[in-house]
Design a protein that fits this description.
Two copies of one chain form a homodimer.
Chain A (H helix, E strand, L loop, with lengths): L11 E2 L23 E8 L3 E2 L3 E4 L3 E3 L4 H5 L2 E3 L2 E5 L5 E4 L1 H14 L7 H14 L11 E10 L11 E11 L7 E6 L20 H12 L4 E6 L4 E4 L4 E7 L5 E5 L10 H13 L3 E4 L4 H10 L2 E8 L3 E10 L2 E4 L13 H14 L8 E3 L1
Parallel strand pairs in A: 1-4, 11-12, 11-18, 15-16
Antiparallel strand pairs in A: 2-3, 2-4, 2-10, 6-9, 7-8, 7-9, 8-20, 9-10, 12-13, 14-15, 14-17, 17-18, 18-19
Helix pairs in contact in A: 2-3, 5-7
Pfam families (chains A, B): Aminotran_4
EC number (chains A, B): 2.6.1.42
Keywords (chains A, B): Amino-acid biosynthesis, Aminotransferase, Branched-chain amino acid biosynthesis, Pyridoxal phosphate, Transferase
Chain lengths: ~375, ~375
């Protein structure tokens, strides 16, 4: 008999007796405010997936010897719920997150799960906590699915027990301004044969100190370069895209290919798809090096550079520090106060219009 | 006023009311049996280190949004307590573990701690649970200090709250036999600019699947190769050492240098020091490639190869699979049943004799 998989019809809901007050949109900062409830689904190798449970948000009881606390057996996702003008709450391409979570979890030997049923449970959680979905354009309810290995066992085998859980955090705009990046070729976020293309917790801890170091220097985030040719990979919380006139004189939107180094971002994929639909310029996934970018800046061929990710949606890059020198990146030459470049803004608006239900699209999935 | 650091004199001890039965040495397997108590020391940026606490072993209450569960802000150590014939319980070079834990924790922005005071608390924990220190040569009490970021905050800054905790597991011999390694050049455990030289949980999760895959092929562990020249790095749970006649005709004990890729093992360091004291052959920390090793095997110059680490102490390698071919490594040509090669066994015996108090040494530190 096959073991039970996740079954949304068995969902148990226990509501909190101490609901939190509503959050004021103005005071929201990313990832610090949580809602009333969380979703927990336990797995054991012996009995498969247990009945999903929505219960009050609160501490998890984790064995000191659990895989997650010793060997970082953990993977996560980032998604958002958006409130449309008519009150509908939409998720954005959630099946891409389900698929990526599945891919990431298999990489660290966490058990397989029914993606459809898990998504159904997430929708139920969002419905239970729907009062926390902000009703303001640009604001949303961030959804964090976490998948952790909970078996207490120091043997480097695999975790025979696991917890898949989801919690929610109402958020405002992540970077409501342009950002300055610091190109780092000394440390590496990811490498060939590594795990940079999986959303594992272990990719993030090593990036904290380098990130804090560049903040101390007055920059916002790191632009991760790789190898001797200084291949431009990603920002770590965002994929990185440039819009330029390439060396062949063509207008081109280009970002790093999914070569095993790069996180396959849902926003990245969506922006590339939108731009390809337009068909107005070349859209490429290929490796670009920092020296190529510097040449383009020097030649006046760099039009815009921006980051893309679920948390930030998009954000324009106004400056990149590289090998002792700071390079200005155009944002919007027609408007010195612009927070987004023209192409960045057009992509952003099209995406937000889908997410907030202004433009009908199969990418918006009502809860 | 400086914030309070760890203060062993403030240690609070709460003993369990449900002590576990003694373990039978014969049934011990690595890292599955835990003792009655654990040590917990909490930190907050606001108030510094709280009073250390020894309390019954049990689940930790961790916020779902804690850094450790989302971004793998976690580092650990592995140490052992050994019971000497006269009943004394020794730690082995514990200050090296304290220093490495400090180095690892700074890499992921966990707070600094007083190494001496923390070690004092660990000694107290071992004393409280001393009945679990096995009284048999080759058996010991494994000590696992874990250091985790506990602040609930999804921002990729650093964790302003942390928990340093220690738990204990009585263990028997890790590999009571020779091991077969599978050389892996397709995936990478570590990388220049990466974090392979720090004992971070995030280095271990990505190695689980590759390790299970080679177990399914009949091998014990992976020998991690790096780069196009297939530099022989380490085993992942052990450093890797070879004893050979090098291409200049010299007898040489050689292991990978501490070049940022390699975990700086305490056992590795100790074995190199012992062999250097003997002064009988060359002892080198330098890069060796897999093709060089294959040539030495073909020429009959390979004498022994072995892994070294706290969990296993040493274990001889009898076979390495590389690029479609299996290569036999000599263990002890004079004894087909030998589990250790002659040099490996001599190093092991000298080390164990220090650890179990047979040979007086400043490396053995009584609790």
């Amino acid at each position: 008999m096959p073991q039970p998989n996740i079954d949304a019809s068995k969902l148990k809901v226990t509501l909190t007796e101490t609901p939190k007050p509503d959050y004021d949109n103005k005071t929201l900062s990313f990832g610090k405010n949580f809602t009333d409830h969380m979703l927990c689904i336990k797995y054991t190798e012996e009995n498969g997936w247990e009945a999903p449970e929505i219960k009050p948000y609160g501490p998890l009881a984790i064995d000191p010897a659990a895989f997650v606390l010793n060997y970082s057996v953990e993977t996560f996702e980032g998604m958002k719920a958006y409130r449309a003008a008519d009150g509908t709450i939409n998720l954005f391409r959630p099946s891409m997150n389900m698929q990526r979570l599945s891919t990431s979890s298999q990489r660290i030997k966490l058990p397989e799960f029914d993606q459809e049923q898990f998504l159904q449970c997430i929708k139920e959680l969002v419905k239970v906590d729907q009062r926390f979905v902000p009703d303001q354009y640009g604001y949303s309810l961030y959804i964090r699915p976490n998948f952790i290995g909970t078996e207490p066992n120091l043997n480097l085998m695999y975790s025979k027990e696991a917890l898949l859980y989801v919690y929610l955090s109402p958020v405002g705009p992540y970077f409501p301004r342009t950002v300055k990046l610091y190109a780092n070729s000394e440390q590496a976020r990811a490498w060939p044969g590594g795990v940079g293309n999986f959303k594992l917790g272990g990719n993030y801890a090593p990036a904290l100190k380098p990130a804090m170091d560049v903040v101390a220097k007055g920059y916002d985030q790191i632009l991760w370069l790789l190898g001797e040719d200084h291949y431009v990979t990603e920002v770590g919380t965002m994929n990185f895209l440039i819009f330029w006139v390439n060396e062949d004189g063509e207008k081109e939107l280009v970002t790093a290919p999914l070569d095993g180094i790069i996180l396959p971002g849902v926003t990245r994929d969506s922006l590339l798809a939108l731009a390809r639909q337009w068909g107005e310029f070349k859209v490429s996934e290929r490796r670009v090096t920092m020296p190529e970018m510097i040449r383009a800046i020097a030649d006046g061929r760099m039009l815009e550079a921006f980051g893309a990710g679920t948390a930030c949606v998009v954000c324009s890059v106004s400056e990149i520090f590289y090998e002792g020198k700071s390079y200005a990146i155009p944002v919007d030459p027609s408007n010195p106060d612009a927070v987004f470049g023209p192409l960045t803004n057009r992509l952003r608006t099209e995406l937000l219009d889908i997410q907030y239900g202004k433009t009908p699209s199969p990418w918006a999935v009502p809860v």
